[in-house]
Amino acid sequence: MLDVVYFPVSAALWCWHRLFALPFGPADGLGWLLAVAALVITVRALLVVPAVRQARSQAVLRSLQPRMDKIRKKHPDDQRKQAEEIRALHREHGVRLFGGLVPMIVQGLVFLGLFHVLRSFDRTGAFAVGPFASTGTPMSVEANSTTPNYLLGISEVQDFLDARVFGAPLSATMTGAGDLFVSVAAPAIPLVLITALATHLTARLTPPAQDGTAALLRRLSLWVFPAGALVSGAILPVAVLVYFATNAAWTCGQQYLIRRKLDAEAATVAAKSGARARAAAPRPGVKPQRQPR
């Protein structure tokens, strides 16, 4: 269904794996994990500019909230008039409510593709045919190791299956690790903690919202989403946990830098406005000049 996403994602992962295979070797676990992290960073880096634009738009929208409240009070019984005046206010200040949807959709599709491609290295379980689908006839171990994973060939599939980190396979999970639990937990627990902490800090760095839906989403991001990361860490493969931890850490750092940038821009604008007001004000002891009628 999403082959148009899976094939390009697998091609990008192939390129990063070939690069990290030079110093580490094709079946090295660290090389594979670095390839996953590099792919996540590549996608997020390409979306930095749209993210900054969306953050600016949201900042302007928050500054317009008092004026929008006045419009609603002015026309309490005329929803159409409210919508027209609010849209005009948005156009006046360059606010695009749906301007951030395209980057969000692209990012969501890419990460869904990466999640599926990473899981598809091991198709011996029930959840092997798609992100939200299961099968009653999973592949045998032999068939799985001799079947390409989209544009990742048989050699790459076998290299991934042979790769180890702390002695654990990259497709292993803590709940299914058995005797390898300690080996799997060694990378998995730090990755889960990074994901949960970065998710929580990102929510704290997000400016408080007055809108009910946005405020609820922020509260969920503060506590529920980090708790979900802790729980899901027990059932997700190590390679997938690297993907989540890298994405969460990037989001947190990006949110911090964008907020600093926007705060600095707002301070500069406020300083210039204050300077203009002081320049226009009459000097002490000087009679104000009246404009001729």
Automatic annotation (TrEMBL):
Keywords assigned by UniProt, alphabetized: Cell membrane, Chaperone, Membrane, Protein transport, Transmembrane, Transmembrane helix, Transport
Transmembrane segments: 31-52, 180-201, 222-245
UniProt keyword Membrane present: yes
Subcellular locations according to the entry: Cell membrane; Membrane
Record InterPro entries: YidC/ALB3/OXA1/COX18, YidC/Oxa/ALB_C, YidC_ALB_C
Domain of life: Bacteria
Region (Disordered): 273-293
Membrane topology: Multi-pass membrane protein
Membrane insertase YidC/Oxa/ALB C-terminal domain location: 32-260
Similarity field: Belongs to the OXA1/ALB3/YidC family. Type 1 subfamily.
Subunit structure: Interacts with the Sec translocase complex via SecD. Specifically interacts with transmembrane segments of nascent integral membrane proteins during membrane integration.
Function noted in UniProt: Required for the insertion and/or proper folding and/or complex formation of integral membrane proteins into the membrane. Involved in integration of membrane proteins that insert both dependently and independently of the Sec translocase complex, as well as at least some lipoproteins. Aids folding of multispanning membrane proteins.
Name the record gives this protein: Membrane protein insertase YidC
Organism: Nocardia rhizosphaerihabitans
